[in-house]
Amino acid sequence: MSSLFACEDPATWRSVYEKYWDAVEGKTKGKKPGKLLNLDKWYQEELPTLISSRPDKHVTLSELVKLMEWKLTRGKFRPRLQQLVASNSADTVEKCSRKAFTLLPDVQAAIAELSSLKGVGPATASAVLAAGAPDQTAFMSDEAMESVPGLKPIQYTAKHYALFLGKMVEKTEKLNKAGPQRDWTPHRLELCLWAMTTAEQQQLPLLKDVDVKASGAAEKRSDADTEQRPAKKLKTR
């Protein structure tokens, strides 16, 4: 799983990125059909638009509750966290998240600010920041962290997130230097690592043709059809 992270060919990463929604759909099979897909569409596409459309970036209480639902559906389910997040006041969530976004690019300060909310730790805080500032942050998913050499055992702390994000930022810069489009972000890299790890864990055949050692012949071809966020290849259900 760390082999993709070691790859420095943008075309290979893009091949994985283009399979992201297939990996999401594959993970939902045998479970609640469409729940993760619908939540992931909301998190990846609707929430960033909502946050960026506001004069001062922030999330609302209902958005934070839904984000937690997305996080728990995508990863390990911990119902107690859902209850704790919902117990925050709407005013506190808006004020806290507004301040967190103003603290950027000091990501650690922003993480600490969001972590003052009930039920919010570094991982959930990173999800909030990644939705509103994908060029500076990445969601602290288990799948992505497991794919990055030197981060095991995983710790859900601000210090561990700083190590993870540092490596993601460094890889982002390398990929942007190696390819002509230069549209890679730490958030996009997390999507790729999540898709690759999920495909391997679920034994999905969708990435069997991706060679992490491939050279970048397909970069220009794939760049032409790729948007800033995962292509809308699947209809939400």
Q: What would you note in describing this structure?
A:
- The radius of gyration is 17 Å and the shape is globular.
- The chain has 237 residues and is mainly alpha-helical.
- Helix 3 (20-28) crosses helix 4 (35-52).
- 60% of the residues lie in helices and 0% in strands.
- It is built from 13 helices and no strands.
- The two termini are 30 Å apart.
- Residues 214-229 and 231-237 have low confidence and may be disordered.
- It has helices spanning 2-6, 10-17, 20-28, 35-52, 61-74, 79-86, 90-103, 107-114, 122-132, 142-147, 158-178, 186-201, 219-223.
- The chain has one domain (2-204).
List its salient traits:
globular, 13 helices, disordered C terminus, mainly alpha
Q: What is this entry, summarized?
A:
The protein has 13 helices and no strands. By secondary structure, the protein is an all-alpha fold.
The general outline is globular
Number of domains: 1
H/E element string? HHHHHHHHHHHHH
The count of β-strands is 0
Unreliable stretches covering 5 or more consecutive residues? 214-229, 231-237
| Residues in helices, as a percent range | 55-70%
How is this fold's topology laid out?
Blueprint: H1 2-6, H2 10-17, H3 20-28, H4 35-52, H5 61-74, H6 79-86, H7 90-103, H8 107-114, H9 122-132, H10 142-147, H11 158-178, H12 186-201, H13 219-223
Helix pairs in contact: 2-12, 3-4, 3-12, 4-5, 5-6, 7-8, 8-9
